[in-house]
Amino acid sequence: MPPLVSVVVPVLGDRVHASRLLRQVPVDPRVEVIVAEAGVEEGHEPGIEELGPGRANGKLIHSAPGRARQMNAGATLARGDWLLFLHADSILPDDWLPALVDTLTTSVVGGWFRFALDDDAWQARMIERGVALRVRLFRLPYGDQGLFLSRRAWDVLGGFRDMPLMDDVDFVRRLVRLGPVVEVPRAITTSARRWRRDGWLRRSARNVTLLGLYFLGVPAARLARWY
């Protein structure tokens, strides 16, 4: 019997975070885990047990670098009726699986989780509110919110387009045009390390600017160089 959900995680040099994430994914016959790793040193072929012990229902594959390529490679091997794409540095809520299962109806083509940052700063709360507003007004979550969709929807969309940046934005825009989407009423927590490193305002302003330029038609390859 195929699993209900295939969890696909692209990994590029962040095995510590990926290991933490996979420990939060239950060893459950309803859940399959596929780690698509790029940038592995030659001669180093670690198994998925290093990322998540007890993974009889898990696969580790090696892929060409590029988040879209890695996610597409993982999805190609997935057996689940639903696909859930997670960033390696995501932190799942304890009840993410039952909350997700409750939203998986035949009328829904896909969706995402709420957004949270792992920082107590007031700036983090403001960014969370801004993301919630963006999602509510424009139906535009990013990949760090855990994008999921049915296998049938995946086949229609043809996967992620091979883009160096904005691959998640392009994917979500196509997904929401395909049919009804939902937001799981639980938050996936994302690392705030880039905001702490670059500055809360500077990082947020840059993200908004890049998104605006993308919608104005600036090629993703050029935006990736600026990013």
Radius of gyration (Å): 17 Å
- Number of domains as seen in the coordinates: 1
Distance between the termini: 43 Å
Oligomer: single chain
Overall geometric form: globular
Which series of helices and strands comes N to C? Answer: EHEEHEHEHEHHEHHH
CATH-assigned fold name: Spore Coat Polysaccharide Biosynthesis Protein SpsA, Chain A
Uncertain segments are none
The helix count comes to 9
Look at the structure and give the CATH class.
Alpha Beta
Compact overview of the structure:
By secondary structure, the chain is an alpha/beta fold.
Description:
Helices cover 41% and strands 21% of the residues. With 227 residues, it is α/β, with parallel strands linked by helices. The protein has one domain (5-193): Alpha-Beta Complex (Spore Coat Polysaccharide Biosynthesis Protein SpsA, Chain A). It has a seven-stranded mixed β-sheet, sandwiched between helices. The longest helix is centred in the middle third of the chain and has 17 residues, at 122-138. The chain is globular and about 50 Å long. The N and C termini lie far apart (43 Å). The mean pLDDT is 90.
Keyphrases for this structure?
Spore Coat Polysaccharide Biosynthesis Protein SpsA, Chain A; 227 residues; 9 helices; alpha/beta
Outline the secondary-structure elements.
Blueprint (H helix, E strand, L loop, with lengths): L4 E8 L2 H9 L7 E8 L19 E5 L4 H11 L4 E4 L10 H8 L6 E8 L4 H17 L8 E4 H7 L9 H12 L2 E10 L2 H6 L1 H16 L4 H7 L1
Parallel strand pairs: 1-2, 1-4, 2-3, 5-7
Antiparallel strand pairs: 4-6, 5-6
